[in-house]
Amino acid sequence: MLNESHQKMLQVIDERAASPDLANVPGGKTGIVTKTIKGIGNGDDFQIVEIYEVDTATIGKICDIQKLVAEELGQRVERTETVHLNRLFEKMTANELDAMDHAAPVCLLQSLADLDSNL
């Protein structure tokens, strides 16, 4: 079932890549660009506009299927690591610990500044 869906999506991409409508559009020959025709405006201001966009939905679905297949085949594994901070601190020298004490407020202030600039 996954393979069939995957192949059909790739077929759509191949067919779009061969489409004369998309041949002269940047990225059109890749097959991942779509064309939408929209009407905008009213009355005398009405016009038809062609919109070209990357088909991120199809790309996303293909990636999802590939991840599922890789998991089923054992080729994709989630990895996690547990860090015991107390053990880490026990291995640090007094100078390293002292440096962390001075660096932590600077990192916190920088993080707050970054957060503030993104708002």
Structural topology:
Layout: H1 2-17, E1 33-40, E2 47-54, H2 56-72, H3 85-91, H4 94-118
Antiparallel strand pairs: 1-2
Question: Which key terms come to mind for this protein?
Answer:
elongated; alpha+beta; two-stranded antiparallel sheet; 119 residues
Can you tell me the residue ranges where pLDDT is under 50 for at least 5 consecutive residues?
A: none
Series of secondary-structure elements, N-terminal to C-terminal: HEEHHH
Please report which band the strand proportion falls in: under 5%, 5-15%, 15-25%, 25-35%, 35-45% or over 45%: 5-15%
Number of strands: 2
Q: What percentage of residues falls in helices of 4 or more residues?
A: 40-55%
The number of domains is 2
Main sheet specs: 2 strands, antiparallel
Distance from N terminus to C terminus (CA atoms, Å) equals: 45 Å
Side by side, the strands of the main sheet go 1-2
Averaged pLDDT = 83
What does this structure look like?
There is one protein chain. The chain has 119 residues and is an alpha+beta fold. It folds into 2 domains: 71 residues, no CATH class; 34 residues. The protein is elongated, with a radius of gyration of 26 Å. The model has no long low-confidence stretch (mean pLDDT 83).
What's this entry about, in short?
The protein has helices at residues 2-17, 56-72, 85-91, 94-118, and strands spanning 33-40, 47-54. With 119 residues, it is an alpha+beta fold.
